[in-house]
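Z., the sequence and structure:
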Amino acid sequence: MSMPGKRPWLGWMVLTIGFAFLYLPILLLMVYSFNESRLATVWTGFSTKWYGELLRDRQLLQAAWISLKVAFWTASAAVLLGTMAALAMVRFGRFRGRTGFGALVTAPLVMPEVILGLSTLLLLVSMGGLFGLPSKGLVAIWIAHVTFTLAYVTVVVSSRLQELDRSLEEAAMDLGANRIKTFFQITLPIIAPALVAGWLLAFTLSLDDVVIASFLSGPSSTTLPIKIFASVRLGVSPKINALATIMVLAVSLIAVIGWWLMARSEKRRAREVQQALKDNG
């Protein structure tokens, strides 16, 4: 316990090595996106021509648009269903079948993606004749991704609901608000950071998926990870580095904006609570 106090440089060194291990490859990828050479690992000079080549590659841009579209609708549906599942598990008490319901919701957390992809494909093939569901394509990928990311959103929202002070909701209902009004005016603003975190997590998992999408993608529904994985076999193109740089910057910007909005909301809520305590005191 005395080592960090005597040798603070050791902790900083370990922290620096850890961050370098995580983020240095991403930084190198972004630097080499401005490489003039066609070889992605040989630096010959600064150039932005690969960003122009990226804008002219319709197949790569179409794959990126498909991935973003699927990830957006996957995250939105996962947040909606995950919030409902979290409310059922946390607020409904010990109902019959609660253990089985929780196990089914969180099963994708420990289940291999190969099993999820194959089982979803077999399910859609068997049910396609009854309900007209396509066995492959964007809808099939969306269904599988919602099933996969639902578990993560449920865990995040459940942990926030368990930490929520129930006295705030009880006070609102004592003042005449019904359960629906209490949820939208009290509960929802408090768990909003968890919903945003769950949405971003589901969006990232869907955008990054290769295994499940490889089972369910069709000729006109190739996602960006599958496109990149197929092209890497022939060598890494600097266009992929350029696309990855744009996506990293966009995701970083969204994360910073989301963090700023959540921090501002949390500060406003803290001020409102302090003001209410002051008024009642």
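The domain at 58-235 is CATH 1.10.3720.10 (MetI-like fold). The chain has a mean pLDDT of 82.

Let me know what you think.
H.
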